[in-house]
Specification:
The structure is a single chain. By secondary structure, the protein is an all-alpha fold. It folds into 2 domains: about 180 residues, Four Helix Bundle (Hemerythrin (Met), subunit A), CATH 1.20.120.1730; about 60 residues, no CATH class. It is about 85% helix and about 0% strand. It contains 6 helices and no strands.
Length: about 260
């Protein structure tokens, strides 16, 4: 294998760095997966809230249509009542298809029951040939109360999903903090480890070897010994001493041969 000693040592220890990086990346992917799951829940809650808003808007328009009809604008009033009824029916169908919370089915059933009573009261006023006074009395004594009952039932559905969104938001913040910390720690540890590894390899391996290389380049027999200038008391110092012992033996052998 060609290449410098430093690269070879770094490559031999790169597995640990890769493992730390992989742990960080896996934590980040897990956080992303959790985010996607929460996003689906929040999206469903948001759709339920939007359905409740459509119900509320349509209910208020239906009540306005009834009041228009009662004051004499019958064509506009009856048209508004029928259009509003269609919107509420569609919104209820959408809500039933998007149930995510424990008590949501029950809340929608209460809305259906309340609205059926209210709408029946509206139709009763419109279809019966009563006097203006009788229609007003029925509206004040029955229809208006049913209107508020229905609106309150719709509001409870909206609050149910809004509360869940708020809870999910808190859960996401806490889980995101927990999920990101191991990832950040792993990646930071990998970076710090790589920097420290490079520093120690350079100081304790590469510099002494370079000193040996320079010492060999500058060596000439007359100086009698190899000056690698190794100051550490480790294997490199032992190697320098052994090389100088070898040089001394060779020089003695050469002197003996010359005699």
């Amino acid at each position: 294998m060609n290449g410098s000693l430093k690269i070879k040592i770094l490559l031999s220890l790169s597995l640990l760095i890769l493992m730390l990086l992989a742990a960080g990346i896996m934590s980040m992917l897990e956080f992303r997966k959790m985010g996607d799951s929460v996003d689906r829940v929040l999206k469903n809650n948001y759709q339920s809230i939007e359905s409740a808003k459509r119900m509320t808007d349509a209910l208020e328009r239906e009540d306005s249509g009834l009041l228009l009809w009662m004051i004499g604008d019958r064509d506009s009033g009856i048209g508004t009542i029928h259009r509003s009824d269609s919107i509420i029916t569609k919104a209820i169908t959408d809500a039933l298809a998007n149930i995510t919370e424990t008590n949501e089915q029950q809340s929608i059933s209460i809305i259906i029951d309340a609205y059926d009573k209210y709408h029946a009261s509206v139709i009763n006023i419109v279809e019966k040939e009563n006097s203006v006074v009788e229609r007003k009395q029925k509206y004040d004594s029955e229809t208006q109360a049913l209107f508020f009952d229905t609106k309150e039932a719709i509001n409870r559905l909206m609050v149910l999903n809004q509360d869940q969104m708020n809870r999910q938001s808190g859960i996401v913040k806490e889980k995101s903090r927990r999920a990101m910390m191991p990832a950040i720690v792993s990646i930071a540890a990998a970076i710090i480890f790589a920097i420290l590894l490079n520093f120690f390899i350079t100081i304790y391996f590469i510099h002494p070897i370079r000193k040996f290389i320079n010492g060999v380049k500058e060596y000439y027999p007359e100086q009698g010994r190899l000056n690698a200038h190794v100051v550490s008391k480790d294997e490199f110092k032992i190697l320098e001493d052994e090389i100088n012992i070898l040089i001394s033996r060779l020089l003695r052998k050469r002197d003996v041969s010359n005699e």
